[in-house]
Design a protein that fits this description.
256 residues; alpha/beta; Metallo-beta-lactamase, Chain A; 6-stranded mixed β-sheet; binds zinc ion; binds fe (iii) ion
């Protein structure tokens, strides 16, 4: 298996531009298109030719460069079948578990509704790379614009089932404010304290806090930790089902 490169850069105010490049086949994919001009410039700087766009969901800050980039490059746009009507320029539709050939690798789609009903993640199995869009953030998860807490909870379970050493790339740099909330609901979590310190140092140096491993997220992200005794106690939900705890964390975060 050949090694894939991921180039991550800032787009708009707090979105990430993400280019996935396969040196062997020279295929290059943009994960979402928060800003067509910035992405085009980064492609030029790398000398990579855009061949694909994989969209995670239809929101205005994830698709605005689709048509411009397709016009310039002739690339193929891939997205969720559920969201086909809302993704500009879409060419190929995928559903949960479908795999897309990308050189010698396959890119799998995981349907992860909650933030929107058509939200998906993309997983590259041998390389253990996961692109989560606005479904999962480091120490946070997306707001429930269309889906229920239960849908988002099920989506979190899908992510939790991936290998611990999966490297997670998210749609936004929200990590520091997420950490502040996470500490509010689980102040004694040592791993969380350590990661927050790391994140503060990175942000202070204007560096990205991503990618992050799933193992780190499991240890620090309250939305993946509905079984934490400390969180349950803090919310007065000892003995309550994990979904109820998750729902409470989500609504607390909405008002944080
Ligand atoms: Zn979004
Ligand atoms: Fe977004």
């Amino acid at each position: 298996m050949c090694e894939l490169l991921v180039h991550q850069f800032r787009c708009r105010s707090d979105n990430f531009g993400l280019l996935l490049y396969d040196p062997r086949s020279k295929l290059c994919a943009s994960i979402d298109t928060p800003d067509g001009d910035t992405i085009w410039r980064e492609l030029g700087a790398k000398g990579w030719q855009l061949t694909h766009i994989f969209n995670t969901h239809h929101h205005y800050d994830h698709v605005p460069g689709n048509e411009m980039l397709k016009e310039h490059s002739g690339c193929t746009i891939i997205g969720a079948k559920n969201d086909a009507k809302r993704i500009p320029g879409i060419d190929e539709l995928m559903e949960d578990g479908d795999k897309y050939d990308f050189g010698a690798n396959k890119i799998s789609m995981l349907e992860t509704p909650g933030h929107t009903l058509g939200s998906v993640c993309y997983f590259i199995e041998p390389e253990k790379i996961l692109f989560t869009g606005d479904t999962l953030f480091s120490m946070g998860c997306g707001r429930l614009f269309e889906g229920s807490a239960e849908l988002m909870w099920q989506s979190m379970q899908k992510i939790l089932a991936l290998p611990d050493d999966t490297q997670i790339y998210c749609g936004h740099e929200y990590t520091l404010s997420n950490a502040e909330f996470a500490l509010e609901v689980e102040p004694d979590n040592l791993a969380l304290q350590q990661r927050t310190n790391e994140v503060r140092t990175l942000r202070h140096a204007h560096k990205a806090t991503l990618p992050v491993s799933l193992a780190t997220e499991k240890a620090t992200n309250p939305f993946l930790r509905s079984d934490s005794v400390e969180i349950k106690k803090k919310l007065g939900l000892q003995g309550h089902p994990a979904l109820e705890v998750f729902t409470a964390i989500r609504s607390l975060k909405d008002n944080f």
